[in-house]
Amino acid sequence: MKIFTSAQIRELDRYTIEHEPIQSIDLMERAASTLARTIANTWDSSVKVVVFAGPGNNGGDALAVARLLGEQGYQVAVFLFNIRGRLSPDCLINKRRVQECKHIKKFVEVTQEFDPPQLEKGMLVIDGLFGSGLNKPLAGGFASLVKYINASPAEVVAIDMPSGLMSEDNTYNVSSNIIRASVTLTLQQPKLSFLFPENQQFIGRLRTLDIRLSQEGISKIDANYTVIEESDVRPLLKDRNPFAHKGQMGHALIMAGSYGMAGAAILATKACLRAGAGKVTVHTPRKNCQIMQVAVPEAVLQLDHEETIITEAVDTENFQALGIGPGIGQNEATAIPFIAQLRRATCPIVADADAINILASHRAWKQQLPKGIILTPHAKELDRLEGASVDSFERLTKAHQLAERLHGYVIVKGRYTAICMPDGHIRFNSTGNAGMATAGSGDVLTGIITALLARGYEPQHACIVGVYLHGLAGDLAARDLGEESLTASDIIDYLPRAFKRLKE
Ligand SMILES: NC(=O)C1=CN([C@@H]2O[C@H](COP(=O)(O)OP(=O)(O)OC[C@H]3O[C@@H](n4cnc5c(N)ncnc54)[C@H](O)[C@@H]3O)[C@@H](O)[C@H]2O)[C@@H](O)CC1
Ligand SMILES: Nc1ncnc2c1ncn2[C@@H]1O[C@H](COP(=O)(O)OP(=O)(O)O)[C@@H](O)[C@H]1O
Ligand SMILES: [K+]
């Protein structure tokens, strides 16, 4: 699914109007009837409704919703904010329709002074002040109105977007000037800012309503952001040749673990085997020998000559992929061979966890990374690597610039893990759940992506399939076990079911 910017939403609007063809006022009516139907399905006509409409098309939608609810017997009071004496053409038409509607008993057009209505518990506020046309954060009277609504005990339904929230960049926004909705009814497609954790407080429960914008327009407009869906992943999966032998299924090298962190090596290695690699060799400190042999008997051990940390760079000619970093620590005696290893590797690489922390404390090394490298930081690791960010948008921007600079892939892990591609595209994962917020989940992802690279997946496909499968395994595990008790090992245990589901 594509995520469009506000400029692209306007373009898609225009495309639909021109090619369906449909009058823009009728498109607004179509959106409004979908909105009104959804509201009526949740709140019956005993609820008192207060509609706040702005001067643009978001306000136009809200006015049309007010009229439609009025016609269905809801008691609706409408406040239209027309401070500059300028309404969008469709907002103006809907203002007249509301004025003519005998079911709307209270209609106030605010041009200067505003005497706010009493908002009580049990009332429903419809927020139609601003949507995707907001061009700067709210201030002044609108900011005061937002604060007033937020302070009230009434429930708030936002049309398209909570007013005050920008579609993409909220870096310089003021959170107290943004509507906190309990439900957001967004039109056609979620907006980029909805994917960020800090914005969930504004959005509440999100519902995406299909208002039948042109499918042809949607496919023609090239989006920089997309959400990965199952239908994107299925065609990427490789078959296993019935005559396959393990030598053809990819030999992966995992460099992981230090004494006390053998678990990271175990999780990455097990996940790598479960994700289909033909053979997995683990390079790990000597002291991990016994535990590795017991925990993952399928893996081949390559022991470092040091007891407790990794201190060697090794030949990768016999391997088709290298996964490096989980639990390796940040000792300088590990850091030096680590960068040597990256320079020396002849196969695709996934670098995670301490690998990223080492790079963060040796900034100059970032220029020496091989092209096509896959980095898998969580938000904090990315902050260490690229400097602190004030919000997710800024962090995503930095990740995407890093991917372009490195000609590599930067996977920022989280609820909607973002894969930043070297060509500037960003693909968001849709699978996964809060049960996966548990130590070791990231090590499992490293193992999975390493296996896919070893199997011969193109790096971009290994990233897409890897994050999707990882989240899907987590979702299938959570369905059976619940989120609370989920462990990283459960994600590995459910990988077979995730593959099976995608291959069915
Ligand atoms: N393709 C779609 O998704 C459709 C969108 N529609 C609606 O149209 C909306 C977008 O309409 P518009 O482009 O008219 O934009 P909005 O209605 O979101 O806002 C634009 C108006 O707000 C003013 N404005 C912007 N920022 C401001 C600020 N910081 N302070 C004060 N005033 C500010 C602008 O000058 C303009 O008058 C969507 O959010 C949606 O509700 C629907 O009508 C139907 C189709
Ligand atoms: N709330 C969540 N929703 C979806 N996925 C999540 C959530 N929390 C964590 N995950 C996933 O779990 C993994 C956690 O990785 P990471 O933070 O590196 O953990 P660790 O360092 O403990 O292994 C990531 O792939 C992330 O996307
Ligand atoms: K709104």
From TrEMBL:
<keyword id="KW-0547">Nucleotide-binding</keyword>
<comment type="similarity">
    <text>In the N-terminal section; belongs to the NnrE/AIBP family.</text>
</comment>
<comment type="subunit">
    <text>Homotetramer.</text>
</comment>
<feature type="binding site">
    <location>
        <position position="442"/>
    </location>
    <ligand>
        <name>AMP</name>
    </ligand>
</feature>
<keyword id="KW-0413">Isomerase</keyword>
<keyword id="KW-0067">ATP-binding</keyword>
<feature type="binding site">
    <location>
        <begin position="57"/>
        <end position="61"/>
    </location>
    <ligand>
        <name>(6S)-NADPHX</name>
    </ligand>
</feature>
<dbReference type="Pfam" id="PF01256">
    <property type="entry name" value="Carb_kinase"/>
</dbReference>
<feature type="binding site">
    <location>
        <position position="160"/>
    </location>
    <ligand>
        <name>(6S)-NADPHX</name>
    </ligand>
</feature>
<keyword id="KW-0521">NADP</keyword>
<keyword id="KW-0630">Potassium</keyword>
<feature type="domain" description="YjeF N-terminal">
    <location>
        <begin position="9"/>
        <end position="219"/>
    </location>
</feature>
<feature type="domain" description="YjeF C-terminal">
    <location>
        <begin position="229"/>
        <end position="502"/>
    </location>
</feature>
<feature type="binding site">
    <location>
        <position position="163"/>
    </location>
    <ligand>
        <name>K(+)</name>
    </ligand>
</feature>
<keyword id="KW-0456">Lyase</keyword>
<dbReference type="InterPro" id="IPR029056">
    <property type="entry name" value="Ribokinase-like"/>
</dbReference>
<feature type="binding site">
    <location>
        <position position="327"/>
    </location>
    <ligand>
        <name>(6S)-NADPHX</name>
    </ligand>
</feature>
<comment type="function">
    <text>Catalyzes the dehydration of the S-form of NAD(P)HX at the expense of ADP, which is converted to AMP. Together with NAD(P)HX epimerase, which catalyzes the epimerization of the S- and R-forms, the enzyme allows the repair of both epimers of NAD(P)HX, a damaged form of NAD(P)H that is a result of enzymatic or heat-dependent hydration.</text>
</comment>
<dbReference type="InterPro" id="IPR000631">
    <property type="entry name" value="CARKD"/>
</dbReference>
<dbReference type="InterPro" id="IPR030677">
    <property type="entry name" value="Nnr"/>
</dbReference>
<comment type="similarity">
    <text>Belongs to the NnrE/AIBP family.</text>
</comment>
<dbReference type="InterPro" id="IPR017953">
    <property type="entry name" value="Carbohydrate_kinase_pred_CS"/>
</dbReference>
<feature type="binding site">
    <location>
        <begin position="131"/>
        <end position="137"/>
    </location>
    <ligand>
        <name>(6S)-NADPHX</name>
    </ligand>
</feature>
<feature type="binding site">
    <location>
        <position position="443"/>
    </location>
    <ligand>
        <name>(6S)-NADPHX</name>
    </ligand>
</feature>
<protein>
    <recommendedName>
        <fullName>Bifunctional NAD(P)H-hydrate repair enzyme</fullName>
        <ecNumber>4.2.1.136</ecNumber>
        <ecNumber>5.1.99.6</ecNumber>
    </recommendedName>
</protein>
<keyword id="KW-0520">NAD</keyword>
<dbReference type="Pfam" id="PF03853">
    <property type="entry name" value="YjeF_N"/>
</dbReference>
<comment type="function">
    <text>Bifunctional enzyme that catalyzes the epimerization of the S- and R-forms of NAD(P)HX and the dehydration of the S-form of NAD(P)HX at the expense of ADP, which is converted to AMP. This allows the repair of both epimers of NAD(P)HX, a damaged form of NAD(P)H that is a result of enzymatic or heat-dependent hydration.</text>
</comment>
<keyword id="KW-0511">Multifunctional enzyme</keyword>
<dbReference type="InterPro" id="IPR004443">
    <property type="entry name" value="YjeF_N_dom"/>
</dbReference>
<feature type="binding site">
    <location>
        <begin position="413"/>
        <end position="417"/>
    </location>
    <ligand>
        <name>AMP</name>
    </ligand>
</feature>
<feature type="binding site">
    <location>
        <position position="378"/>
    </location>
    <ligand>
        <name>(6S)-NADPHX</name>
    </ligand>
</feature>
<feature type="binding site">
    <location>
        <position position="58"/>
    </location>
    <ligand>
        <name>K(+)</name>
    </ligand>
</feature>
<keyword id="KW-0479">Metal-binding</keyword>
<dbReference type="InterPro" id="IPR036652">
    <property type="entry name" value="YjeF_N_dom_sf"/>
</dbReference>
<feature type="binding site">
    <location>
        <position position="127"/>
    </location>
    <ligand>
        <name>K(+)</name>
    </ligand>
</feature>
<feature type="binding site">
    <location>
        <position position="264"/>
    </location>
    <ligand>
        <name>(6S)-NADPHX</name>
    </ligand>
</feature>
